[in-house]
Amino acid sequence: MSALNPRSLLIIADDLSGAADCAIAFAGAGRRTIVTLDASSALKAGADANPIDVIAADTDTRRLAPQVAARRTADAFSTLNAPGRRLYKKIDSTLRGNWAAEVAALQPRAGLAIVAPAFPATGRTTHRARVLVRGEPLESTDTWKLENADRPANVQTMLEDAGLRCDSINVDTLRGDADVLRNRIRATTKERVEALIVDAHTSDDLKRLAEITSQLDHELFWVGSGGLARELAALPALFSNPPNRPLVHEKQDGAILVLVGSLSSVSERQCAMLRERAGVAELIVPPAILRAGDAHHDWREWQRKIGDFLVKRIDLLVRIGRDDAFDPAEGAHLSNALAALVAPHFGHVGGLIATGGETARAMLSATGIGSLDLLAEVEAGVAVARPSAPLPSRPAIVTKAGAFGSEHALFGAWEHLRRLPSSATKTATATATIPATNTH
């Protein structure tokens, strides 16, 4: 790990799109930022001459049993932690997954958990330790009802159920006297508080929290979504090196493939706009085919249909359908099968847009891509990246959480990939800006 930055940041996330949307702000601030599917990929990516400022590790634990998720999260921290490297535990802004068990596993190793799930730019705020989505209680949203039935969406209750001793700070205290706030955080040691939950209504609230907690000598780590992360990204004191110019990726030859594994109403609207404005062809794969995999009698026919578009370099939207047998727990299996269906034709893909962390991870794993360099952001939570290691096919890759983003998100991502500079354009621009050599 000697090539890595001595003052840097480790982000641990439970799915791939979450890792990317949390880390993308650091890339935008000029920090070399990689998203990795496993620790070994991070080590390989850090072996080159360019130091890594931020590692965002996807533990792929959202669907696991809480005890297994906690153990895998602790192992990721042990493997990737280093002197001078601070920790950010990325959690879903709508509290999906095993986040409380994972925070409980990290707390004895990393100190006080500063917990702030809010992401005001996407309509998620916290008030009295409860998450609101555009002002409405999280429990009333379709996303929560789909996966959590009648469980309460209370941050403090979930952490206490995981065994942590909690306290909370309301938004008035956060916005009040800075010394009072610092002393309140320092007092948690005497009070044996293990997790401090902080309400936030605006991005300015998160900015204040980031500035104050980053300056404390208290042993602590941050727990939040992409909201708090982007405020930390604006603080140069977190890193040893000055920022660099953001990386640029050249346009790759081939079709743009859009994979949608999410069944959320948000994704439905985004797909509709993409079809309407971009005229992208669409295939909806029946779940029964994905459940059976290559044993299904229609498997090769669907593989051929997908190949017909990609070989001809025709942009294509491929979605997982829904039927009466749908079970949220089968998401990873369906995503892996979808990736296997597409993988034989991936060499014809010039750009990939993947909605849903399980979908993105499955496609990258199926094609041997272990880590990504983050490049840019299409909109909040929609990240553009490229494979860290050179490959025969090195498409630009966009990741987005399923129930996330504006109706414009997929179309905006498609437009972004279409407008990437070609190698010829880049060479011509570079030549035009090189001053003539003085031979006298």
Automatic annotation (TrEMBL):
Record carries keyword Hydrolase = no
Database matches in Pfam families:
NBD_C (PF17042), SBD_N (PF07005)
Q: Sorted alphabetically, which keywords does the UniProt record give?
A: ATP-binding, Carbohydrate metabolism, Kinase, Nucleotide-binding, Transferase
Q: Which domain of life is it from?
A: Bacteria
Which SUPFAM superfamilies does the record match to this protein?
YgbK-like (SSF142764)
Q: Which GO terms describe its molecular function?
A: ATP binding; kinase activity
Where is the Four-carbon acid sugar kinase N-terminal domain positioned along the sequence? 9-232
Keyword hit for NAD: no
Q: Which residues form the Four-carbon acid sugar kinase nucleotide binding domain?
A: 257-410
Tell me which family the UniProt entry assigns to this protein. Belongs to the four-carbon acid sugar kinase family.
Protein name, please? HPr kinase
Q: Which organism is it from?
A: Caballeronia sordidicola (Burkholderia sordidicola)
